Amino acid sequence: MKGNMGNMMKQMQKMQKKMMKAQDELHEMSFEASAGGGMVTVLANGKKEITDVQIKEEVVDPDDIEMLQDLILAATNDVLKQIDDKTNETMGQFTKGLPGGMF
After folding, report:
1. CA 2 distance to own-chain centroid
2. CA 87/CA 29 separation, integer angstroms
3. Which of 35, 37, 51, 64 has the largest count of CB atoms under 10 Å?
4. Sheet holding 30-35, edge to edge
């Protein structure tokens, strides 16, 4: 019985190392989303940090700031969703088949 427990602990440590490596790789990834046909582009890393915002000059209209704000929000929300989806896809492989609440 002790052998099984030791083996299980080794398996858990191995899985933990793989999870940490996958998480580090995710943090290094770049994500990009745009709105308004490319008028606003938002770049972020896997840590959900916005690294750049690009705005085409022709979308800047002092009489319609609200449209620009909407485009920035749309692109930002899209890039954050991409990060969440990729994180769930990548990290989900480690939790498949585990009883709920174990991790």
Report:
1. 40
2. 11
3. 35
4. 30-35, 40-45, 50-55
**pTM higher than 0.85:** no
Residue 75 tokens read as 């692109």
Q: How far apart are CA 61 and CA 95, in angstroms?
A: 48
DSSP state of 64: -
Superfamily of domain 28-86: Nucleoid-associated protein YbaB-like domain (3.30.1310.10)
- Which two tokens mark 94? 């480690």
40: closest CA among 13, 66, 76, 15? 76
